[in-house]
Design a protein that fits this description.
The protein is an all-alpha fold and 140 residues long. The chain contains five helices and no strands.
Length: 140
């Protein structure tokens, strides 16, 4: 017993018999080999350029690597160019162009109408539906 009390607790002789396995600590930052990440990895990185053409892509037919690039013209508001301010709910022929076959109002990104006029168009469509000038849904 004299042996056990004379040794300090932190020495290897007094260590418990069941010691946890030594885990390898990660190497310091300087010692790790540098492996560059791809630029497109992660939400902030940019993606590499896509090949031009090809099936399903813009400007290419099936298997065609060359050819013209697809150019989409920027849509301009029909009402702004023609300087139409008032959109009447009674003008059914005009409003039908902004209603899909199923009766849904076509969104701005498809029609190219500016925000202000899209709001007026949708209000006029709803008013003309309420007084039965336009149908709520398509007929089957």
């Amino acid at each position: 017993m004299a042996d056990e009390t004379s040794t300090p607790q932190g020495t290897p002789e007094s260590a418990p018999a069941q010691s946890a396995p030594a885990q390898s600590a990660p190497a310091p930052r300087e010692a790790r080999p540098y492996t560059p990440r791809p630029a497109y990895a992660g939400p902030g990185g940019s993606r590499p350029p896509r090949p031009a053409g090809g099936p399903g892509g813009p400007g290419g037919g099936p298997g065609g690597a060359g050819g013209r690039k697809f150019f989409r013209r920027k849509k301009v508001c029909k009402f702004c160019t023609e300087k139409i301010d008032a959109i009447s709910y009674r003008d059914v022929r005009l409003l039908q162009g902004f209603v899909a076959e199923r009766g849904k109002i076509v969104p701005r990104r498809l029609t190219g109408v500016c925000t202000r006029h899209q709001r007026k168009v949708s209000q006029a469509i709803k008013q003309s539906r309420n007084i039965a000038l336009l149908a709520f849904a398509a007929r089957f």
